[in-house]
Amino acid sequence: MTDQALSHRPITQPTDILNQLQSGQLLRVYGRRGNALIIVHRHHAEIAGPGAAVGSVFDLDCCRVIPVGKVSIIYPESLTKRQQAYVMRQKWIRFTQKAMETYIPLERGQRLLILLHKYFATELIDSLSDEVLAQLVGVLPRTIEMVRCVRRQEAGGRRQEAGGRRQEVEESPDEKNFTTMNENQSLVRQVRLPCPRIKKQLWNWHPAS
User: Fold this and answer.
1) Strand pairing partners for 8?
2) What's the whole-number mean pLDDT along residues 60-66?
3) Domain that holds residue 100
4) Is 33 among the domain residues?
């Protein structure tokens, strides 16, 4: 790749960012903490936060990019900056891997939202679709929808009712059980959320660690 093919100016528009990533050029995410870029591939998605490498061989097959907050991509001018960018990309990969340390889809979704709410503003997370969040941790969009419903119940201190009866929520030292219902309010599902110890571990972890 020639020097003329390299982009030396910040790129902010999603369409332009996508074109640059698909070109194979090595770039890095530029922005403040609390902002990032979601890179959607055919069967999965990845988060790349400030300083992380994007493009190159990592993202040749990406089909969509979603800015989370205000971000741009720039060319890492020096060898040191390129090396640092590779390290940051690995750290952001571990960011989502923390949520995938369990095989249970509902727990994966809950772990992901705990991590996202720690790092990003609530309004930014709420703007992301269930489909995109599901691709980050390999679950169905319906799973993310259910977890979001549970989080709303937890935040509001409300308990759902089914068939005119209230089902008590039992709490143990290890986990909390919440009852959620589908759109027709006819199917009751029980969702197990991570215990307080796991929540604390996730909350204390961030990509820079």
Assistant:
1) none
2) 96
3) 14-157
4) yes
Contact between 109 and 75 under an 8 Å Cβ cutoff? The reply is: no
- β-pair partners for 40: 45, 64
pLDDT at 182: 39
**Which residues does residue 30 pair with via DSSP β-bridges, in sequence order?**
72
In a domain, 37, yes or no: yes
- Of the candidates 19, 60, 20, 55, the one whose C-alpha atom is nearest the C-alpha of residue 42 is 60
Q: Is residue 189 part of a domain?
A: no
At which residue do the structure tokens 């390290």 appear?
87
pLDDT tens-digit readout, 5-50: 455 678 999 999 999 999 999 999 999 999 999 999 999 999 999 9
pLDDT-wise least confident of 110-119, 121-130, 185-194 = 185-194
Residue 169 within a domain: no
At residue 165, what are phi and psi to the nearest 5 degrees? -115, 145
How does DSSP classify residue 128?
S
- The number of folded domains in the chain is 1
Give the H or E element holding residue 181: strand 176-181
